[in-house]
Specification:
Length: 548
């Protein structure tokens, strides 16, 4: 029975002498090794050669669907490209014609009567032109310093070529010749051949990230550029735009966005590459997606993440609802929000209503539905309803809470909240109601304070006032025991007794946050106090979220 893959140990010479050329698949990232990594490889090779030991380059993963198809490199591009640069420099520095020819054969196959010559290694469509021009052609590395660069030029290829050439130029001809022979004969690796891309992707993840998914950014860039049919100049221009998107959202944010777009348009169970290729590109073409739709998604996601302020025309109430959403532990609410900001009605009234409803739903999902898959399915249905132009506010619609859900959320508000993020999000939401609807972003200087400490010091006034362990456990993580302080106040409060905390909160006359106002009228922090205050604060949310 075939397992779908086959591993084989081979030398570098055998790998680069194979009749099949090696091709980077569309989803591969560009060449990204720095001078440090490239020079370290040469140093490691020299060290192993001096100790007369073979050198192991690790595993590479390749896929070939049929004998007629090219061999795609799923994993190993950085090492193979750097070895090719090394071969090219050694070739161009060698005074011996035979040696130079043998090294060039690692870069280009010989022409025969039945088959033209072809390059051994082809990078993605952005890196390939410069790789051909300054690496693979005979004598090319001698001119690398004179290559005219632009902002779209793959700089690592140029800088590494220059740095490696300087290092190798300091060696004698004999030393370089010995290094060439050592690399070809005594450097080996494991080549893992797989039957299809999906298996290659799986093996890649196991070898490199122990199951962590490959970056969506890396998977999609070259694939979309190739599907768009960009020329070299167009690819360079769009590469700059793509990198700018990454800088605006940061690398993690851009990956998140690309995955959310895939979730919105793709089908469950598909990989991200298939989602884009089979469900997004056929609808609008890769060029239209890259030039028209993706920039709009980036603008929307930048706003969702709070990385920029809203434009003057963005409704103020909608913005405050979005701030509340960002305080939650889960983030899959971003799927319908993204879809609405791209496809929904952005006039003030409908946009504000949508954000009001999605915020209520997201808090309900956080506090009453611990199943992430349940939440994701519901958000996906809302996204589909937006796409179809359905009425989002029908009583039985997914955006609305039904009677049972409203009752469950209402009861939940006076219970215990398990995590710090839940307690803080709830307190920030209540604080905004008391603060005339103005939301405090979670990234501001605001911390959650438990008036009754979660860990009571032995023999303290707290221990005397709260002798029941059960009552302490029941109420310490309930909303009636919460307030908000800035970091400095929180550090001072620590486990102080109630009167000391109260004095600290009102030291400047007015508390730092509206949620603390009512504490001024409280003389003792007892179980009954916490219960009554909890009901009062929960009632504010019940009215705000229309739960009655």
């Amino acid at each position: 029975m075939s397992l779908g893959f086959k591993a084989q140990d081979i030398t570098v010479r055998e790998l680069f002498s194979d009749s099949d050329s090696l091709l980077m698949p569309p989803y591969q990232r560009g060449y990204s090794w720095t001078e440090k990594e490239a020079l370290e490889l040469i140093g490691d090779l020299q060290d192993a050669m001096e100790r007369n030991r073979p050198y192991f380059l690790g595993a590479i993963v390749v896929v070939q669907n049929s004998a007629k198809d090219p061999v795609e490199v799923v994993d190993g591009q950085q090492r193979l490209a750097t070895l090719s640069i090394l071969f090219a420099i050694l070739r161009d520095l060698s005074p011996a014609r035979d040696e130079a020819n043998k090294l060039h054969e690692m870069l280009e196959t010989k022409r025969t009567l039945t088959r033209p010559s072809q390059w051994r290694l082809t990078l993605n469509n952005v890196d390939s032109p410069i790789f051909r021009q300054v690496i693979q052609k005979r004598g090319a590395t001698e001119e690398a310093e004179q290559y005219v660069t632009s902002s779209g030029t793959p700089q690592h290829i140029l800088s590494n070529t220059q740095a490696m050439r300087e290092m190798l130029n300091e060696m004698s001809t004999k030393e370089r010749s010995a290094l060439s022979q050592y690399i070809l004969k005594r450097c080996g690796l494991v080549r893992v051949k797989v039957e299809d891309r999906d298996m290659g992707y799986t093996v890649f993840r196991v070898l490199n990230t122990r199951g962590k998914q490959i970056s969506a950014n890396d998977i999609l860039k070259s694939e979309l550029f190739e599907l768009a049919g960009f020329s070299v100049d167009e690819a360079a221009t769009h590469s700059i735009a793509w990198n700018q998107f990454g800088r605006r959202l940061n690398a993690t944010g851009f990956d998140e966005l690309l995955k959310y777009i895939w979730t919105i348009h793709g089908k469950p169970g598909e990989d991200i590459l298939s989602g884009y290729r089979d469900h997004i590109v056929p609808i609008m073409t890769a060029r239209v997606f890259l030039e028209e739709l993706l920039p709009r998604y980036v603008d929307a996601y930048e706003l969702i993440l709070g990385l920029r302020a809203p434009s003057q025309g963005f409704p103020k109430l909608a913005w405050h609802h979005l701030i509340h959403l960002r305080s939650l532990e889960h983030s899959s609410w971003r799927i319908p929000v993204l879809k609405y900001m791209i496809s929904g009605d952005l006039a003030e009234a409908p946009l504000t209503l949508f954000f009001k409803r999605i915020e209520r739903l997201a808090f309900a999902m956080q506090f009453t539905k611990p199943d992430n898959n349940f939440r994701l399915r519901r958000y996906n249905r809302i996204s589909k309803s937006i796409e179809n132009g359905d009425d989002l506010y029908t009583p039985d619609g997914d955006l609305e809470l039904n009677a049972d859900e409203r009752e469950t959320l209402s009861e939940r508000l006076e219970g215990r909240f398990a995590t710090y993020r839940q307690r803080r999000a709830l307190s920030l939401r209540i604080n905004s109601i008391l603060n005339e609807g103005i939301a405090t972003p979670a990234e501001f200087d605001v911390t959650l304070e438990h008036i009754l400490p979660r860990n009571m010091p032995a023999k303290s006034d707290w221990a005397k006032q709260w002798p029941s362990t059960n009552q302490h456990r029941e109420l310490v993580d309930s909303v009636g025991n919460f307030t908000l302080l800035n970091n400095k106040e929180n550090q001072e409060a620590d486990r102080k007794d109630f009167h000391s905390k109260k004095e600290l909160i009102f030291r400047e006359g007015e508390p730092s946050f509206a949620m603390s106002y009512d504490i001024k009228e409280i003389d003792q922090w007892t179980p009954e106090t916490v219960k009554q205050r909890g009901k009062k604060l929960a009632d504010l949310l019940r009215m705000e979220w229309e739960l009655s």
